[in-house]
Amino acid sequence: MGENLQKLWEIKFVNVWGENMKDLQEMRKRIDEIDKELVKLFEKRLYVIFEINEYKKKHLLPIEDKNRERELIKTNVSYCKNPEYSTYIVEFLECIISISKKVQLDYRKIKND
Fold this sequence. Notes:
Elements (H helix, E strand, L loop, with lengths): L2 H10 L8 H38 L7 H12 L8 H27 L1
Helix pairs in contact: 2-4, 3-4
């Protein structure tokens, strides 16, 4: 863990352990709301992935496009306000990309059966 991230952890999160359970429940409710929004956005993304997959299939394009993946990661990491989080953002985006490729592969297998 980077030194700055360690300090952030100590400043922002160590205090949680001294708070009462009600505060923890409130924080978890905030996480639940964020997760709810993430799921809605990911579902929208999946719809677009299906459209892209159809386009790629029609134009005989491969599912994987490493240049696009690198650009997507680079662009989205630039939106991160805290540079200490950039490694985690990259990992998050790589997971999304991996799932996106899996969805396209699975969909093509179903369509080919």
